[in-house]
Description:
The protein is an alpha/beta fold. It has one domain (10-207): Class I glutamine amidotransferase (GATase) domain (Rossmann fold). It contains seven helices and 14 strands. It has a seven-stranded mixed beta sheet, sandwiched between helices. The protein is globular. The chain starts with 9 loop residues before the first strand and ends with a strand.
Amino acid sequence: MKRSMSLQPIFLFADSQLLFWRDGGQLFIERIVTRGQLKAAYIGASNGDNPDFYAIFVSAMEGAGVFDCRMIPSVISEADMAFLNDADIVLLAGGDVEAGWRVFLNNGLSEHIVRRYSEGALLIGISAGAVQLGLGGLAADGSLIETFKLVPYIIGAHEESDNWKTTMALLRLAGPGKTALGLPFGGGAIYHPDQTVEALRKPLVRLSL
């Protein structure tokens, strides 16, 4: 197990575009990846461990000079857990928020991901993964699923064409005093350890009741 380190920023992407976005001629992901010989873990439970989406992740990491990548599947082996425990970057993939969260509860990743963050791993959430890093997601029965809560906001992803309908429903379920951050398609946010929020590529949408 890694010794405790200072917390890293949490990166919230509406979709995978920011993995390949060039800001001023430089890949944005290269600014995140600042050291060599890094290990990057991909958690694809929300999309059923689809290898096509994992291939996108590998391509993005290789573009930033990170070649030691591994998919951590829904059924985790000892070798998978050993890799996760050494991973410098942990990415939560997009897909179905509820389906992914149920897997995390069943295989223990609901606790291990929080632990790895506290130990200094850098977290990236894409779409459903970004939602899961926030306060909660919407279940199929219309109830609130409480998720990692590492980012103290309800997170909505690429819902602008639907007027943030799901995000607003989550706000109503979450109770008074909560705020939502909407990540427009192609955009994202950085949640810094000092609790400040930085928009990426596009302005964020802040929602409250």
